[in-house]
Design goal:
By secondary structure, the chain is an all-beta fold. A hairpin with a 2-residue loop joins strand 9 and strand 10.
């Protein structure tokens, strides 16, 4: 079983930055894929960014060039650096590790 604890959400003005963190703990051998989904108000959940065990990354088009996903393998932690935030980035952000999910952290971007 894997527990995921997210942190770093909050309220920020448009153009600002936030860094989300998600630490995995529990009994596991190796985590393969980690990443972030988000669900905005009245929207479906969408995949934001992923990072494989080998370090390969992928981003949804709307965040390319603004968000960066990274991973600390020793700490079993995944990060999402979000720059130049826009009001449309407002959502609950959920991290995942293989088939396990975090509880979500709210990101609100004011215009």
């Amino acid at each position: 079983q894997v527990q995921l604890v997210e942190s770093g959400g909050g309220l920020v003005q448009a153009g600002g930055s936030l860094r989300l963190s998600c630490a995995a703990s529990g009994r596991f051998f190796n985590i393969n894929d980690m990443g972030w989904y988000r669900q905005g108000p009245g929207k479906q959940r969408e995949l934001v960014a992923t990072i494989t065990r080998g370090g390969g990354t992928n981003y949804v088009y709307s965040v390319k060039g603004r968000f960066t996903i990274s991973r600390d393998y020793a700490k079993n932690t995944v990060y999402l650096q979000m720059n130049n935030l826009k009001p449309e980035d407002t959502a609950v952000y959920y991290c995942y590790a293989d088939t396990f999910w975090g509880q979500g952290t709210q990101v609100t971007v004011s215009s």
